[in-house]
Amino acid sequence: MTTIDYEAIAREAGLERVGARPPLGSYLVSVWRRRAFIYTMARYRLQASVEENRLGLGWIVLKPILNALLYGFIFAVIMPSDTRPDNFIPFLVAGVFVFEYFSKALGMGARAIVGEASLVRSLNFPRMLLPVALITRHAIEMVPMMVVLGIILVVTGEPITFWWLMSIPVLVVMTAFNLGVALTVARLTVHVRDISQLIPLITRLFFYASGIFYSLELVLADQPSWMLRLAQLNPVHDFISLIRGYMVSGNPVNSFMWTVAIVSAVLMLAFGTWFFWRAEERYGHD
Amino acid sequence: MTESTLGMPTVVANDVHIHYKTFASGKAAQNSRNLLRRQRGVRVVKAVRGVSFVAREGESIGVIGHNGSGKSTLMRAIAGLQAPAKGTIYASSRPALLGVNAALLGELSGQKNVILGSLALGHSMAEAEETYKDIVDFSGLGEFIDMPMKTYSSGMSARLRFSIAVSRDHRILLVDEALAVGDKEFRAKSEARIRELREQAGTVFLVSHSMGSIRDTCNRVLWIDHGELKMDGPPEDVIEAYKAHG
Asked: CA-to-CA distance for A14 and B88, rounded, in angstroms?
């Protein structure tokens, strides 16, 4: 038996190792190059799924409306309380709609890779496309939701102001945050499947901690001020507060909210991108 | 080694081992008390055990072996879809595996699936539209191309998948069991296309149980048996030995 130096043959021919993770920069470039594939697939999948539901795309806005109706019924009719502002319905609806944006990123982000096992196992593409496509879809769905929110606010007597336009930068910052969250949980569930069991619990925790059906400021009014500060460090609360601040009367915006929102979005996106890219070689391998 | 001094190496596999974890039950399950270090019932399957070879330009390599011998796993590793537990695979360009199936949607027409499949294989939108006509012509599906793909027979959808996959001039193409389907005419066309790719200084790997296809298209055969490379040589010799083995 003659031993062949395979490494030397590969080196001389200038071959590269298959499946090697590219550096972060060229990885992101390859994500951008393959965007047409994932965009077209998302669009076609949507078309295919719409054909099955009679209301089709209507469900995107109908679901949060029904959610808001349910919460409105429970918290305004069955359990009224003085920890809620006077214009409770617009307050609640804005909270539920913005929270829905976050909870979708968390819940569906967790399934971005493990839920696409057959695709990941049989095709080569930068895996980051999957969570990116997911967040893009959610961002697009946010457009009709904001229109519906506007209509609900007008119906419940909120004045239309130019400040409403400030919701656009808030949602842009929130999208960056959501993408960071989706990238992080997408990798975590690959390592430990059990995390997907915890996601509903985490979602609920954020739901109660982010002041959706009550005002954190009113609840913590009698408590030491550090408690409110602590509660305001939750970025989800700040995104909701900023949207309310610009769209629902009686909710002042302060610079602390913006600081937390922007800093958390930048950190989350940077961490999520790095964290997801680090495990590129692992996705779909077990 | 065979007369492989002709072309430059395109794929080099150096002592490749591939393991994968499965959830097993009964006797195969090995319970471990440490929850954090090992999940319950996980069993490591050693699918490929120390395979080495050098593939060169202009070679069309048939890969044969019994079901479960590790052929497909090896192909997936060459395509970069499965990381070897030990050893390394080198390639001159990213090998393409016939994996379009996962991206295609049964509810949509063949037309849309052709575009989607092309994009899945790494084409740009412009390229996908450019090759669209060639793909449809090659598939020979005619007016069926407007119908949802779920209405296709298995032979028809396999033809469409194959047509999409070979539309591009891949430097390295991995074909897994695709030639076993389709009628005689389509099979002849497929084999001709594979020879064409090979002549364009590409390397083709063909996994098949059809010794006929392998004899007609390949100039080298790898015989994988229980995850090991049992034989590597000209088709006639290897197929004969394989048949004698039973």
From this structure: 14
B108 touching A (Cβ < 8 Å): yes
SS3 at position A242: helix
What CATH number is attached to the domain comprising B204?
3.40.50.300
Of A94-98, A258-262, B183-187, the one with minimum mean pLDDT is: B183-187
Out of B21, B82, B99, whose CB is closest to A123? B99
- Under an 8 A CB cutoff, do A18 and B8 touch? no
Instruction: Output phi, psi for B89, to 5 deg.
Output: -120, 130
- Could you tell me the residue ranges of all domains in chain A? 25-282
- Report the 10 Å Cβ neighbour count for A282: 15
Whether B1 is in a domain gets the answer no
pLDDT digits (tens, 9 = 90+) for A133-161: 899 888 988 888 898 889 888 988 888 88
What's CA B156's distance to the chain center, in Å?
A: 19
**Token pair 């609640």 is at which residue?**
A92
Chain A CB contacts of B14 under 8 Å are 6-7, 10
Does B8 reside within a domain? no
- Interchain contact, B79 vs A14, CB within 8 Å: no
- For the four alpha carbons of A144, A148, A150 and A151, in that order, the dihedral sign comes to positive
Does residue B26 sit within a domain? Answer: no
Q: What is the ipTM of this complex?
A: 0.71
Beta-bridged to residue A17, according to DSSP, are B90
Is position B226 within any domain? yes
B79/A contact by beta carbon, under 8 A: yes
- Whether the CB-CB separation of B46 and B19 falls below 8 Å is answered with yes
Residues in chain A: 286
Chain B nearest C-alpha distance from A42 (Å) = 10
